[in-house]
Amino acid sequence: MSEPLYLRSVVPTRNRFRAFTIVESRSLWGEPALLVSWGRLGSRQRHRVETFPDACALERRRVTLLKTRLRHGYERVA
Fold first, then answer.
1. pLDDT tens-place string over residues 10-44
2. DSSP letters along 15-45, please?
């Protein structure tokens, strides 16, 4: 499993304070899964769990999510 990815998009002039997190894990049945969280900084986050048949499919989805968020102005946080 890789490290969690923490992303933020902060643009005060547009009142934009967003967070996005991608975490690899395993489902209750041992399937590879991604826990995706997003929302406004300082407020309750929304969550979604996506399961995959294998680790390759999970990695493809993780890279796709990361590229999409970076394209929309998010930046990686430590």
1. 999 999 999 999 999 999 999 999 999 999 999 99
2. TEEEEEEEEEEE-TTS-EEEEEEEEETTSPP
Phi first, then psi, for residue 74 (nearest 5°) are: -80, 155
Report DSSP state, residue 13: G
Which residues, including other chains, have CB under 8 Å from residue 21's CB and lie 6 or more apart?
A: 4, 5, 6, 7, 35, 36, 37, 38, 45
Provide the token pair at 73. Answer: 């102005």
Tokens of 44: 């309750």
Rounded to 5°, angle at Cα 61 from 7 and 73:
30
